[in-house]
What we know:
By secondary structure, the protein is mostly helical. The protein contains 13 helices and no strands. It has a single domain, classed as Na+/H+ antiporter like fold.
Amino acid sequence: xxxxxxxxxxxxxxxxxxxxxxxxxxxxxxxxxxxxxxxxxxxxxxxxxxxxxxxxxxxxxxxxxxxxxxxxxxxxxxxxxxxxxxxxxxxxxxxxxxxxxxxxxxxxxxxxxxxxxxxxxxxxxxxxxxxxxxxxxxxxxxxxxxxxxxxxxxxxxxxxxxxxxxxxxxxxxxxxxxxxxxxxxxxxxxxxxxxxxxxxxxxxxxxxxxxxxxxxxxxxxxxxxxxxxxxxxxxxxxxxxxxxxxxxxxxxxxxxxxxxxxxxxxxxxxxxxxxxxxxxxxxxxxxxxxxxxxxxx
Length: 297
C-alpha cells in the first residue's frame, strides 16, 4: 500500500512538472544537436561509466553501490531547469535535454542500470539474491514517467489554461507528499539512518561532484557557449532522485541504504546546483562591473 501511494505521488510530480514541457522544446534538438547531445552523453554515458568505475574501486555495501548506479542511470529532474534559469544558463537547452532524456530513460535507465549491476561482481551477486528483474524496471518507468508525461503534454496541448491552473498546486502537493514519505521512512528507522548518513553523505557529495564535472567536461569538449555550458553542467549533476526513490520503493522494498543514497542526493544536488548558480551570478556581476570600469576609462 505504501509503495502504491509513493508511486502515485511521484507520478503526480512528473505530471505537474511536465506541464511546463512544450512540443517546441523537442524542436530545439533539431536546431542545436551538438549542445543537446553533450548533455545527453554526460547523463547517459559518462556518469554511468564513471559510477561503475567508482564502485569497482571503492569498498562499499552492495545496496549503496546499486543505489549509486540507479541514480546515475536516471534522467535529469525538473529542478535542473529551475537551477539553470537561476544561474543564467540556457533554459531552452535545459528544457530540451530534460525532455529528450526523460523519453530516452524508458530504454537507457533500465539498460544502464542492468549493465552496471552485471559488470560489478558484488552487485551482480546482490541482484541475483533479491531477483532484480529489468522488465519490472521498465514497467515502473512507464508508470512513473511515460504515462504522466504523455498526459501532461496532452493537457498542455488541448487545455493550456487548465495546465496553468494545475501546475503549481499539483507540484506543491507532490513535493510536500514526497518529503513526508522520506521523513516517515527515516523516522521509522532513525537510528539506522543516522549510521547511514555518516557514511553515505560523503559518497553522495563526491558522486554528485563527479556528475557536475563530467557535464562540464562534455560542454568544454563540445565548445559550447557559457550559457549552454551551464545548462549541460547542471543537467549532468542533477539527476531525478525522485524517480530513483520510486523505483527503490517499487522494486527494492524501500531498502534503507538505497533510500539514504537517493534521498540524500535529492537534498544535496539542490545545495550544489544552487551554489553553482549563485557563483555564476556573482561572476556575471563581477564581469559587468569590470566592463563598466574599463569602459569608463
